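thread: overnight batch results

M.L. [08:02]
morning all. the overnight job finished for the chain we discussed friday. pasting input first so we're all looking at the same thing
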Amino acid sequence: MTFMTTMTLDDLTIRIRNAWGADTCASEDLPKWSRQNPARGQCGITALVVNDLLGGDLMLGEVHVNGERVDFHWWNCLPDGTEIDLTREQFEAHEVVTAGQVVRRPPEIQRYREEYEVLKLRVLAAQSAPH
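M.L. [08:03]
and the structure it wrote out:
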């Protein structure tokens, strides 16, 4: 899948954020997901969709509460070296994300595959919709 050069990163960001829903949220984050915090539980699949469309690397950091790891957080490093994190705002003040490391994309998406496919289809449908 190639990224349409006519779409800006801002356009992609809007389309991704509009595509998030409870049905694309990671199940363990669903109790904290809301329309007020739609980024909650969307990081893994969002990073994969951005990677599909823009390339680059997947970044992985840890989420800590009181110095203890409670989760992981995903974002992207674009081919030009720019890091973008479309879901960083999901975290509350007491949740601290560590520095990330580049990780290899899995050859096949197994965890949250259905949520990933729903998000990607929504983003692509919005991409082809007339403005």
